[in-house]
Design a protein that fits this description.
Structural class: alpha/beta
Number of strands: 22
Bound molecules: adenosine-5'-triphosphate, magnesium ion
Shape: globular
Radius of gyration: 34 Å
Strand content: 15-25%
Largest sheet: 7 strands, mixed
Strand order of the largest sheet: 16-17-15-14-18-21-22
Length: 777
């Protein structure tokens, strides 16, 4: 038979825990965004999609390499959308082999080849074997149904399987009902002819039946054991009651064990007293009283909490330096500061440890630097995420009188660490919430205050616990969300975004070797050329940190691993062309977000939690009565900047060579297109004025020029924050000419030299200077 041609691209619905079969109707729950997009795309064209199981259900965004090679073309019968996704009913049509993937913007598409339909061969010599297996499988399925539901098993079997005429469809139905693993289901789907299908299903069902029966036996056994336990328990209680009456209080083994554990913990005097009181209370309780478990869990916590155990600090500076360098590229200032701090600890062990706060965009190494410090000092490391935490009790615990009470995260962290002096990293403290359940920031203040945290009280523990040996490191994306008093207690260290060159160096020295090992490749098999790396940095990622870059490298390594396994070759270097073949089309094919701006458009620079970003301002003239219209969800301050900009242009019209008539006789509409950027703050003032000026004069702003700065009503340009991040973002976005407020000049020294060399930076203190800079050539 000739090879059928590949079918055109079809949307894919990846399945985590099931397989769709031809002729069978399936109800599927769809939750992932990309899967929902695939559904929508399919619903729009022909209602057909390919349902195919994932190799690993944990992969959230699978590509072709994460899917089983054989899936099922299916028709959508119905989609019911709900809050968390959708419920779909699909009817399987034909088996298909996936061939090539094509990542559409928001879902995965593949081209595919239809496979032959499996049918029962009637005249061949295998017919009798197939027939025998068919009946055997029917019997097994019936038996399984009966073991699972002894009352209605027969009826269920009849209704779902017996009613189907076609034997192959019957087998598919059995495979989809029998609670099989995805691998087993896939085996049935992959079977190319009736004999192998029957055979595969027979093996699976035989095994399954054995497992189910075994499970039933085990469950019965367990029930017997439980009865036995209850009996013992009652007897023990009676024994205790008798002993109590006779005045010879004996201790349960359980309690004895706990006591031994507590003895070992070498508790401080005052705590020992409290513990003894609780222990004797426990002895008087009946072991199945609900209080018993609560008291027991409490004592267990005390026994497990570290009261004395600590690790010895390794404060050798040369060693620390080496570890820090081993783990991270660059970050000189931060490393220096850490070494200074270690030096102080060495000279004066009594000194209060500072609370460090690492601030910077995502993926610049805040968390991993914390781990590295722990490694350098030889301390235990525990990380707690505070993002979205509203409830003070999460930090400080609930009183034990609450049902299901637990200690707070701090005590849990120390318990996990098992020593009194771990490094506790409090991640995302800028994302702390605050509501009626209390103010976690206030609790945090007490926790971090060296004057108070020697006697930290967790509501659950309800005993003083000494946190003063803990080294706290906090992280945040911005300082904005952090309450002032909390901020005052911390020593802020900024980690800013990386330039292209820095990213490439980080990739070479850290990310590539790591991903290479992950994928099981050696150096010759994953040998990435300089151009290819640059392309990955510029064309596949656009971020301040290197997290996405690491992901892209990981993806490349996995694709490469597959090539190596399938084609057994490859010593060649990976060049840009091969990168595109392996990773698909470039995500950011052009440097610049926009080419050839029309008059009225100007690029500004914004500073966000994710680093910096280029933000376009568009102005156009409208009829007079409109005055100033603003759209694009602008904040109050930004709206005011827009009005101020127009007023200033009017008042300085002559000086700026503008016609006052035009300004008076037209209204303006200023729009800042959507984007993930929160649009407020004064730093777009200069950009607004430039966009307006360009609209009034019809002169276009060069497309490689971006600016930032606050504008006063008298035309002065005031300094703004986040210059380094903004300029890095501008550079990333292909901007080469930048205008910044003169008063920000000192911030420019923080830029990496390679970036500075490529940027033509103009300093301006008045709008006039800005406009000259923009339009002079
Ligand atoms: N300078 C660097 N040298 C080597 N690796 C780095 C560097 N900066 C970041 N990385 C690597 O990048 C990855 C992401 O870093 P990390 O998770 O620490 O980011 P983060 O700053 O904590 O981000 P977030 O704010 O999202 O939590 C890690 O694998 C880290 O090792
Ligand atoms: Mg982090």
């Amino acid at each position: 038979m000739s090879e059928p041609a590949d079918q055109p691209i079809c949307p894919v619905l990846p399945l985590k825990d099931t397989v769709v079969y031809p002729e069978i109707v399936h109800h599927l729950a769809v939750g992932r965004t990309r899967s929902l997009a695939a559904l929508t795309a399919a619903a729009e064209k022909g209602r057909e999609l390919i349902a195919v199981a994932q190799l690993d259900p944990a992969v959230e965004d699978p590509g072709l390499e994460d899917l089983h090679p054989i899936g099922t073309l299916a028709r959508i019968n119905r989609i019911e959308k709900h809050e968390h996704g959708a419920q779909v009913i699909v009817q399987g049509l034909r088996r298909v082999a996936l061939s090539r993937d094509q990542r559409e913007a928001d879902y995965l598409g593949v081209s595919y080849r239809e496979l032959d339909t499996v049918a029962v061969a009637d005249a061949s010599d295998k017919a009798s074997t197939v027939d025998a297996l068919l009946r055997e499988n029917q019997r097994l399925a019936q038996q399984i149904a009966n073991v699972l539901d002894s009352e209605n098993g027969d009826q269920i079997y009849q209704q779902f399987v017996g009613s189907i005429a076609d034997p192959i469809t019957q087998m598919y139905r059995i495979a989809s009902l029998a609670n099989l693993t995805v691998e087993q289901q896939q085996m049935v789907l992959a079977a190319a002819d009736s004999l192998s299908l029957m055979q595969a299903l027979h093996n699976i069902l035989t095994h399954e039946l054995q497992v189910i029966e075994l499970r039933r036996q085990i469950a019965e056994q367990a029930r017997d054991d439980l009865d036995q336990q209850q009996r013992e328990h009652v007897l023990r209680q009676q024994k205790r009651a008798i002993e109590h009456a006779l005045g010879e209080e004996g201790e349960d083994e359980d309690i004895a064990e706990l006591k031994a554990q507590l003895d070992q913990a070498e508790l401080p005097e005052s705590i020992r007293k409290e513990v003894d009181r609780e222990l004797s209370r426990l002895g008087r309780m009946s072991a199945n009283a609900s209080d018993y478990q609560v008291a027991r869990a409490y004592l267990e916590l005390i026994a497990e909490l570290p009261w004395h155990q600590s690790t010895e600090d390794q404060l050798e500076l040369a060693h620390a330096r080496q570890v820090l360098d081993e783990d991270h590229y660059g970050l000189e200032d931060v490393k220096e500061r850490i070494l200074e701090f270690l030096a102080v600890m060495k000279l004066n062990p009594q000194a209060k440890a500072p609370i460090l706060c690492f601030v910077g965009p995502p993926g610049v190494g805040k968390t991993s630097l914390g781990k590295s410090i722990a490694r350098a000092m030889g301390r235990k490391f525990e990380r707690l995420s505070l993002g979205g935490l509203h409830d003070e009790a999460e930090l400080r615990g609930h009183r034990r009188t609450y049902i299901g009470a637990m200690p707070g995260r701090i005590i849990q962290g120390v318990r996990r660490a098992g020593v009194i002096n771990p490094i506790l990293m409090l991640d995302e403290i800028d994302k702390l919430g605050r509501d009626f359940r209390g103010d976690p920031a206030a609790a945090l203040m007490e926790i971090l205050d060296p004057a108070q945290n020697q006697e930290f009280r967790d509501n659950y523990l309800n005993l003083p616990y000494d946190l003063s040996h803990v080294l706290f490191i906090t992280t945040a994306n911005t300082l904005e969300g952090i309450p002032r008093p909390l901020l005052d207690r911390m020593e802020v260290l900024e980690l800013s975004g990386y330039s292209d060159m820095e990213k490439q160096a980080i990739a070479r020295q850290y990310l590539i070797p790591r991903q290479r090992t992950e994928a099981g490749l050696d150096e010759s098999q994953l040998n990435i050329s300089a151009q290819a790396l640059q392309q990955m940095v510029r064309r596949y990622t656009r971020e301040a940190g290197v997290r996405e870059l690491e992901r892209v490298i990981g993806r490349l390594a996995r694709k490469r691993a597959r090539q190596v396994v399938e084609e057994q070759m490859l010593e060649e270097q990976i060049d840009p062309e091969l990168v595109t073949t392996l990773l698909g089309p470039e995500k950011y094919p052009s440097d610049k977000a926009r080419d050839n701006l029309t008059p009225g458009v100007a690029a500004g620079l914004a500073w966000t939690e994710a680093g910096g970003d280029v933000l376009y301002v568009e102005a156009s003239l409208t009829q007079k009565d409109d005055k100033v219209t603003l759209t694009g969800h602008l904040g109050q301050v930004m709206q005011e900047s827009a009005r101020a900009a127009r007023s200033y242009l009017w008042s300085a019209a002559e000086e700026l060579d503008l016609s006052r008539d035009t300004i008076e006789s037209t209204g303006v509409h200023i729009h800042v297109p959507a984007g993930a950027v929160p649009k407020d703050g004064p730093s777009a003032g200069v950009t607004m004025a430039t966009a307006l000026y360009s609209a009034y004069t019809g002169k276009a702003v060069p497309d490689d020029l971006a600016m930032t700065g606050e504008l006063t009503l008298s035309g002065l340009v005031l300094p703004v924050g986040g210059i380094k991040e903004k300029l890095l973002a501008a550079h990333r976005a292909g901007m080469r000419r930048i205008i910044v407020p003169r008063d920000n000049e000192s911030d420019l020294s923080k830029l990496p030299q390679t970036v500075r060399d490529e940027l033509n930076i103009t300093l301006a203190s008045t709008l006039k200077e800005v406009l000259t800079g923009v339009f002079s050539n």
